[in-house]
Amino acid sequence: MKTLILNGSPRKNGDVAFLLEQLVSLLPGETVRLNAYTSGIHACEDCRYCKVKPGCSIHDPMQQLYRTLDTFDNIVIASPVYFSDLTPPLLAIGSRLQASYMAKRFRNEQMFPRLKNGAVILTGGGDGNLDPAWDAAVKFLRLMNARNIAPLAAAQHTDHLPVSEDRQAQDGVKVIARWFIDHAGSSGTGY
């Protein structure tokens, strides 16, 4: 089992990192992490290159991600929630999945033919709503051809409950790990 983690947190030892460490400790196989803040991946420029040609005109580390996405069985999107959404660098990576959408919509091609499993981990405090962040993450997972999506794991009260004490969030991560293990082998080719 091979898992890609797209980490949208700028904090190396923050709430998202805590939950990701727990998840990685429970997963068999290889785990590859990509931090959105240090990735060097730029946002989509809406140049329309991908409307008529495969791939993307922007030559940055996203090209490597395009090439390797179909080697993963599972994809995790993990992010703190800023103003009810994913962090801007993670949204920038997601915007580059426009190439996948355009391939299907205008060229009837599947950019990532291998089916994958997906999961979302969100953290936040305050009175924001997690739904917009969840919706964006699921859209991005679908554009990477993740069809089986695990239940959300979330720590929604980090302003007064440290994630290290949030049993519900930690249990959510355990559910994701178990879910990936139970769904191993359900990835493959299809759409």
TrEMBL record:
Q: Any stretches that span the bilayer, and where are they?
A: none
Name the source's superkingdom.
Answer: Bacteria
The record's listing under InterPro entries reads: Flavoprotein-like_sf, FMN_Rdtase-like_dom, ISF_SsuE-like
Keyword annotations for this protein, in alphabetical order, are:
Flavoprotein, FMN
> Where in the sequence is the signal peptide annotated?
none
Q: Which Gene3D superfamilies match?
A: 3.40.50.360
Residue ranges occupied by any NADPH-dependent FMN reductase-like domain in the UniProt entry: 1-151
The name on file for this protein is: Flavodoxin family protein
